[in-house]
Write a structure and sequence with these properties.
2 domains, two-stranded antiparallel ribbon, elongated
Length: 96
């Protein structure tokens, strides 16, 4: 299956920022990911606007944003933990 370049880059950005406490700058992300700063700036701007990233203008660092919590919350709301637990062999043996 073909990879959509911009979608892949967004995931790389989120993963890179998540792996670094304190955030990353545009330059650091560009170096780490090998994405030209110009292309990266557009992606970062979009992610900040959608609140998937936050930007500290004083330190010029990007961090994960509150928009990700909304996605995680929706994911957690859709989990059927009881059903998931029954599908795991070690859980079934404890229930019996």
């Amino acid at each position: 299956m073909a990879v959509v370049k911009s979608a892949d880059r967004v995931v790389q950005i989120l993963e890179a920022i998540a792996s670094k406490n304190g955030g990353l700058s545009n330059s650091e992300l560009s170096t780490i990911l090998g994405i030209p700063k110009g292309s990266l700036s557009f992606l970062l701007y979009n992610l900040v606007e959608r609140e998937y990233l936050s930007f500290d203008p004083q330190r010029k660092l990007y961090n994960l944003g509150a928009g990700l919590l909304v996605l995680v919350g929706r994911y957690l709301n859709n989990l059927d933990i009881v059903r998931m637990g029954h599908n795991r062999p070690q859980t079934r043996s404890r229930i019996k």
